[in-house]
Amino acid sequence: MIRLEPRNEVSKGLLYVTPVIAIGVTILAGVVMFAVLGKDPIRAISIIFLEPLTDSFAISEMIVKATPLILIAIGLSFGFRAGVWNIGAEGQFTVGALSGGAVALALYEVEGFWVLPLMCLAGALGGMAWAAIPAFLRTRFNANEILVSLMLTYVAVLLLSVLVYGPLKDPEGLNFPESRMFHPAATLPILIEETRAHVGFLVALAVAAVAWVVLGRHIFGYQVKVMGQSPRAAGFGGFVEKRVVWMCLMISGGLAGLAGLFEAAGPVGQLVPALPVGYGFTAIIVTFLGRLNPIGILLAGFVMALTYIGGETAQIEMNLPSAVTGVFQGMFLFSLLGFDVLARYRIRMFRTARTAPLAVQTAVGE
Amino acid sequence: MTGTALLQLSGITKRFPGVLANDNISFSVAPGAVHALLGENGAGKSTLVKMIYGVMQPDQGEMHFDGAPYAPARPSAARARGVGMVFQHFSLFEALSVAENVALGMNKDAIGKDLNRLIIEVSESYGLSLDPARFVGSLSVGERQRVEIVRCLLQNPRLLIMDEPTSVLTPQEVDVLFETLRQLSSEGCSILYISHKLEEIRTLCDRATVLRGGRVVADCDPREETAKSLAEMMIGTSLSFPERQEPDLGDERLVVEELSAESPDPFGTDLVDISFSVRAGEILGIAGVAGNGQVELMEALIGERATEDGAIRIDGEPVGRQGPTERRRRGMCSVPEERLGHGAVPDMSLWENVILSARTRKGIEKNGFLDLGIAHDFAREVVDTFNVKTAGIEHTARSLSGGNLQKFIVGREMLQKPTVLVILQPTWGVDAAAAADIHRALQELAKGGAAILVISQDLNELMAISTSFAVISEGRLSEPRPTGSMSIEEIGLLMGGVRSSAGKGASAGKGASAGQGAAR
Fold it and tell me: Which of A230, A244, A340, A358 should be substituted to probe chain B, the one whose Cβ sees the most B Cβ atoms within 10 Å?
């Protein structure tokens, strides 16, 4: 009989190795899946995971996809450390795009270096405002922020639809439900000529660097860790739970809102109902794949971006269904969570199954 | 003792890693008896009744029920033999009705068709009125307990185990409960009654088995004992009053005035009108049986829970509204009772755990940023000074043994040179040598001008180190007096809650203090 025994200390080495194992196992599972589907598994895997890395345009597209993922995931990582589960980054992303985009449309044809920063500010504030709802409901009424933030995502997406069908509709757009294209002064500068990679990526890198410092060297990062691991100890340390809940939701909401604005003012260039494509949800996987660590999140953001690009290529070249991207992302999270057990537990083989160790351990606490 | 006993335990032993919870325990419960199991927290009462109820199994020894061997592998087996138990913390679903909750806790074949009628019948015949259709969420704590009792009674128990049933009840509810228990006993159902409230046991029980440190230390008729003698059996009679030099007292550093606080925990204890002061150089010891408000008092003192601003003053400044960080800045440090998960974060390294409470006074935090070098140095200093056995400060708090973690936490607070120290159970789980070191360090700290408040269940410890002494019982604090001016008899009575029962039965309290078994 096999039993899992909690380790005395979490193995730090394994914590870094398991994401790599998870990626390997996901690829292996992909091989099996393609073989069962009757597709050439080696070719499919190489199209999804290797070819994008050899093509400079594909790399620029990876940057485009990785930028919102990294921004959102870094915001989420604070809350996830503290036990504040913001699952509604997609909604905050949408409202951020909407409020920043509204500024862009209001200032249409206004030239000025301050237009873009103002849009960014509006985007971040929009995301924060959307995240303030679950923050208020949790701190005031103890409402579950998982449910509230998730449900608000659908409200946000519908809000975007209503506004681009109405007040934000392009006056010269033949009644199509979309805003007009943002003025060049309200569009993000391109990073690499002839591509869609924009300066938002540099912001994402800077945010990762700041987050790294805050988590390792600032009292707020420490506070977040203590709150997540042991709320009573946090109280003893003088940390106030409500304040941490608010801070975490403001950070994740603000960064998600900023990511939404970057998407609208970058690759999309306007507000359309189809703007939210699931970055807010995929970022949750990125957060965990990156071990809640800013550097890890940078890497994980690119791995996830790779599955987007590779998945698209595989659709075109091998006629694979579009679900292939989602399947790979799901397998990543699943195998990561599965292998994480190894870092926290030791596997023991037993002959007899007479005693009940868990019952004994709880009883000792008496 | 032989053929007539309903439940007979012989040589029951239960070992947990590092603890002998029950050591060769033997006693028997007669049919229809109300039998008390008396002992301090950690004496092994809960472990013992869990084995009787089949929640866990003894390592050695055997039990007989009604003359036949009895070794329940799980609670349902115990219930099938006629053993019921009402736990201290209820296992009820608030969103379900009374009837549904009752049905959930019964063995399947025991649930009849008209459960509702049965519930009403049973509850009425025992004076425990209950409406089966009501939702448990809308019931008071006392009513919830009735649901648990009725659930047991529906299965016609021959032995009913009650784990500290009155700790959650109002005095009026206690009276009703006692009536029910007496009725049950007169009908031949035995009751095993777990408590550390001496007055209760003297009123209700006709037999008592006293446990201390996992062993049976006495078997007696509580009606023939005084509260004092019961207390002595429970806490041990080896109390000594060591000589000590008169303390050199300075100004009042910690002043608590009319502190009252309602506990947010339904099983917690409200603090009622607590007043005391601790001077520089003074060590005030607060004794009491666990669960009488010690934790609540500490939380209020160190700032985890806000109180009236003026209720707590440090060096004259009101701090009742301030949080722990501001109070630390003013010089107050503290050691909570629970080491892992309150005083330390289990999965954080020792140097990270130093930041938790020492960041202000040791200058680890500057403008919000942490100087990790200072944290490492201070953690090393704590480990060296207090002989904490660990492979290094990179290891987690969880990896330390209980005693070593205690030394680490005590050291972390003492080396911050507090001017006011609030410390719960300072030597819980540490070996004798380390305990002596901690006591010496406390005395030196006091000599250096700090005001120290020690809250402990270890009377020997309090007698050894404190300069003044008070007892907390049911959230009220007795008037502090110089240590040594109180007799063991007085302390025992105060700890047993005699003083605080004055409201509902002053005569009972007086009778007890007069001794001579007045309650017979």
Answer: A230
Count how many domains chain B has: 3
- Tens-digit pLDDT profile for residues B411-465: 999 999 999 999 998 887 666 667 778 888 899 999 999 999 999 877 778 888 8
Helix ranges, chain A (H): 12-37, 41-45, 51-54, 56-82, 89-106, 115-141, 145-165, 200-217, 219-229, 231-237, 241-263, 279-289, 294-318, 323-344, 357-364
Instruction: Note whether B263 and B352 are same-domain residues.
Output: no
The closest CB to that of B47, out of A10, A217, A363, belongs to A363
Report residue A334 as tokens: 């699943």
Instruction: Out of A275-279, B85-89, B229-233, give the one with best mean pLDDT.
Output: A275-279
Which of B48, B334, B345, B396 has the most A C-beta neighbours within 10 Å, making it the best mutation to test the interface with A?
B345
Q: Which two structure tokens, joined as six digits, stand for A203?
A: 């912001």
CA distance B153 to B3: 25
Could you name the CATH architecture of A2-51+62-349? Answer: Orthogonal Bundle (1.10)
pLDDT digits (tens, 9 = 90+) for B306-352: 898 889 999 999 999 999 999 999 999 999 988 888 999 998 999 99
Cβ neighbours of B344 in A, within 8 Å: 233
- Name chain B contacts of A222, Cβ cutoff 8 Å: 352, 355, 370
User: B300 to chain A: nearest residue by CA?
Assistant: A236
Domain closes at, from B388, B411, B434: B411
Find tokens 């049933």 and name the residue.
B165
Interchain contact, A8 vs B399, CB within 8 Å = yes
Given a cut of 70, the residues of chain A with pLDDT beneath it are 1, 8-9, 350-366
